[in-house]
Amino acid sequence: MPKAYWITTYRSISDAEKVAAYAKLAGPALSAAGGTFLARGLPSYAFESGRMERTTLIEFDSVDAALAAHETPAYQEALRALGDGADRDLRIIEAAS
Known about the structure:
Number of domains: 1
Largest sheet: 4 strands, antiparallel
CATH architecture: 2-Layer Sandwich
Distance between the termini: 9 Å
Helix content: 25-40%
Number of strands: 4
Radius of gyration: 13 Å
Pfam families: DUF1330
Mean pLDDT: 96
Strand order of the largest sheet: 2-3-1-4
């Protein structure tokens, strides 16, 4: 079964304190669910329609594992902490074989 990648890009951040509260909870929740953080932070460059906002890339053993991580109580708590603090785009994609 191919690995999967959870990619989150932030379109905008309206409340940095809420994003910090989210990150404090989400990191451990996603790691506990089997995620490995490969990259997180501001882009070095952005092209075409890209934005210079926070991006996160997390590897999971499978799409099912990434979906299961999203639904854990610990990650759902992180989402509640984030609330309306950011406009984000979260995608889960399967690795190329």
